[in-house]
């Protein structure tokens, strides 16, 4: 359903997008009982930037009404800017 993007940030941000295996092993994603996307708030960013997840849908639409049910949307968290 989704592709894990690992290329350079198109907005030239200080971020290192990681693949699915890296995201799972570092705790950035979890799929037990739902889907959780997290930020890396424990490691010091270096090189390309802080590890993060960038997902792209494999489907494309000309028109859509998208409804999303969020169990938790953090606010005022460093590095959090959900682009839904």
Structure characterization notes:
The chain is mainly beta and 84 residues long. Helices cover 7% and strands 19% of the residues. The chain contains one helix and six strands, in the order E-E-H-E-E-E-E. It has one helix spanning 20-25; strands at 2-4, 15-17, 29-30, 36-37, 50-52, 55-57. The strands form three sheets. Strands 1-6 form a two-stranded antiparallel sheet. A two-stranded parallel sheet has the order 2-5. It has a two-stranded antiparallel sheet with strand order 3-4. A hairpin with a 5-residue loop joins strand 3 and strand 4 (36-37). The longest helix has 6 residues, at 20-25. The relative contact order is 0.26.
Please give the number of β-strands. 6
| Average pLDDT over all residues | 86
Beta-strand proportion: 15-25%
Q: Any idea what the radius of gyration is?
A: 14 Å
Major sheet attributes: 2 strands, antiparallel
Going by helix content, strand content and strand pairing, the class is mainly beta
Helix content: under 10%
How far is it from the N-terminal to the C-terminal residue, by CA? 15 Å
Any descriptors?
84 residues, mainly beta, two-stranded antiparallel ribbon, two-stranded parallel ribbon, 1 helix, 6 strands, 7% helix, 19% strand, globular
Write the layout of secondary structure elements.
Blueprint: E1 2-4, E2 15-17, H1 20-25, E3 29-30, E4 36-37, E5 50-52, E6 55-57
Parallel strand pairs: 2-5
Antiparallel strand pairs: 1-6, 3-4
